[in-house]
Specification:
- The complex is a heterodimer of chains A (265) and B (249).
- Chain A has helices at 2-11, 14-45, 73-82, 145-149, 175-179, 201-204, 211-215, 232-239; strands at 59-64, 93-101, 106-109, 128-137, 155-157, 163-165, 186-187, 194-195, 221-225, 242-243, 255-258.
- Chain A is α+β, with helices and mostly antiparallel strands and 265 residues long.
- Among the domains of chain A are: 2-40; 55-93 and 137-142 and 184-258, Alpha-Beta Plaits, CATH 3.30.70.
- The longest helix of chain B is centred in the first third of the chain and has 24 residues, at 10-33.
- Chain B is an all-alpha fold and 249 residues long.
- The radius of gyration of chain B is 36 Å and the shape is elongated.
């Protein structure tokens, strides 16, 4: 046995050895090249039926807290537009009221997601230091925790940066609802699949604004492209001091807040 | 070689065959069960994007309204509600755009509708027009006085208190109660018609308050006097004292 192995070793000539090495080195490059051209083709081909090409866009939203009057029209419009269940606790967008008192207490409330407006009756004798409204929505993170935890690939970040749910593929395990640090997801009580803000995807592919932006009476919400200089959102980012929610989590949200207070989390 | 195969224990052979079968079944099953468009553009079903895009719209957008109602559109856009989309008040109206005669948009006439935005609430940003609906012409519906497409009040307000009620009520209980607003704020008559285009002036420096409150100022003796040179010279007066209610802390 030992002798045989030594014999075969001797038979390997320098020429054939070098040839084999060259083939081995070139093969992955050739395969990689083939794979790459294949991918290029699919990217070029892939667009929606109406000609919308996701990879040409990158959507984001700006919210100016100093302009929000807490009327809740955005929450109402969202429920109308997206068929969100009418009972409270199911919201794709909502408005929170922050009341900060002189002794440092912070009170946050959102009765029925702001859809009926806010009652201004005083519940406490504490002196108010400052108060404001904060519209909340899915942050469409560039680094979304909900997508990372989905076991079946039913939620994903599209090439246009919008985080969507594939309701045909969702198994309703609720992992994404747990993972979202902004509480932006809920389980639809009838379909038992995860639901969330889609930036009104069916509207933006037709060049329309999301419903909440469309109806905002004070233009507190701004929607647009992040990588096109002429977009209203880029102007918003240029003209305001911008904050994001929970920056320490490294989720890189694409919802930008102007005049954000440190108490908002 | 034959020796080598014979040396493999029987259980290892059987297990490796089983493993092979499992792997083959797995490959066949995933290729059959995975949708064709899964992984086309990412780790997801590409068709899901189309599904999300296929939903029906409810809000037509204000450009659609302008096509037919250009008169109302022009009125609205030249007035305070210019930033308002029609469907904020009239409700989702894509059906009305498609079949104008069959579907009519809503026209809110309830006295509770306008206060959704305009009821006084301390959390609202300052400067946003707000009323206390309990005392603001009770029981009259808003549209009797205000045209919603051009909501400027039908009557020009005569007094400052008509709009600045909060300030005037604070001032009326303060020691500044006898000072007319125009003593400190130069106000053009046009301000009553177009309040935001013609803003009243505000005092700009310490010397303005010093006209009454400095030690060498003329006037009644009960007016509190300060030494302008030593009394916090780095600040302007209204950083600490609220001029409409100077007693307040």
């Amino acid at each position: 046995m030992k002798n045989k192995i030594i014999e075969t070793d001797k038979k390997v000539e320098r020429r054939s050895f070098l040839k084999k090495i060259a083939i081995l080195a070139l093969a992955p490059i050739a395969f990689g090249f083939l794979g790459a051209t294949d991918k290029l083709k699919t990217v070029k081909k892939w667009m929606l039926e109406n000609g919308y090409i996701p990879s040409n866009h990158k959507w984001g939203m700006g919210i100016d807290i100093s302009k929000c009057i807490g009327c809740g029209r955005c929450a109402v419009a969202c429920k109308n537009e997206n068929n969100v269940p009418k009972e409270p606790f199911f919201f794709r967008t909502w408005v929170e009221r922050y009341r900060i008192y002189e002794n440092g207490d912070v009170q946050v409330d959102s009765p029925n997601g702001s859809m009926d407006g806010f009652d201004n009756s005083r519940t406490t004798n504490k002196k108010m230091l400052r108060s404001f409204f904060v519209p909340k929505i899915c942050n469409h993170c560039d680094n979304p925790p909900c997508v990372q935890v989905c076991p079946v690939g039913a939620t994903f970040k599209g090439e246009d940066g919008v985080v969507l749910v594939d309701s045909d593929y969702c198994v309703g395990c609720r992992y994404c609802i747990q993972a979202c640090p902004y509480g932006a997801r809920f389980l639809h009580p009838e379909t038992h699949t995860a639901e969330k803000c889609t930036f009104c995807y069916h509207r933006i592919v037709q060049d329309k604004l999301p419903a909440c932006v469309e109806v905002c009476p004070t233009q507190a919400r701004v929607f647009g492209e992040l990588n096109k200089k002429a977009s209203p959102l880029v102007r918003f980012l240029r003209m305001n001091k911008i904050g994001i929610l929970k920056p320490s989590l490294n989720t890189e949200p694409k919802v930008y807040y102007a005049n954000l207070d440190m108490e908002v989390k | 070689m034959k020796n080598f195969l014979q040396k493999i224990p029987e259980q290892v052979k059987r297990l490796s065959i089983l493993l092979l079968v499992v792997v083959i079944v797995f490959i066949v099953a995933t290729s059959l069960l995975t949708p064709k468009d899964f992984g086309l553009v990412g780790h997801y079903r590409a068709g899901a994007i189309q599904n999300n895009a296929d939903k029906k719209m409810e809000y037509a957008g204000q450009e659609a309204c302008a096509d037919c109602h250009d008169d109302l559109w022009k009125t609205k856009n030249s007035s305070y509600h210019k930033n308002l989309s029609c469907e904020v008040c009239h409700g989702p109206s894509v059906n009305h755009v498609n079949e104008p005669d069959q579907f009519k948009p809503e026209k809110p006439r309830d006295r509770t509708f306008c206060p959704v935005c305009h009821e006084f609430n301390p959390s609202r940003p300052t400067g946003f027009p707000q009323i206390v609906s309990a005392s603001h012409n009770p029981r009259r519906i808003c549209v009797t006085c205000h045209n919603p497409h051009n909501p400027t009040p039908s009557q020009t307000p005569k007094e400052c208190s008509a709009c600045h009620a909060e300030i005037s009520s604070a001032k009326s209980v303060s020691s500044h109660m006898d000072i007319p607003c125009t003593k400190c704020h130069e106000t053009l008559e046009k301000h009553k018609l177009r309040p935001r285009e013609y803003l009243p002036t505000k005092p700009a420096n310490r010397e303005f308050c010093g006209q009454c409150h400095s030690q060498d100022a003329k006037g009644d003796e009960f007016i509190p006097r300060i030494n302008m040179a030593t009394h916090e010279p780095r600040y302007v007066c209204w950083q600490c004292h609220y001029p409409h209610l100077p007693e307040a802390q």
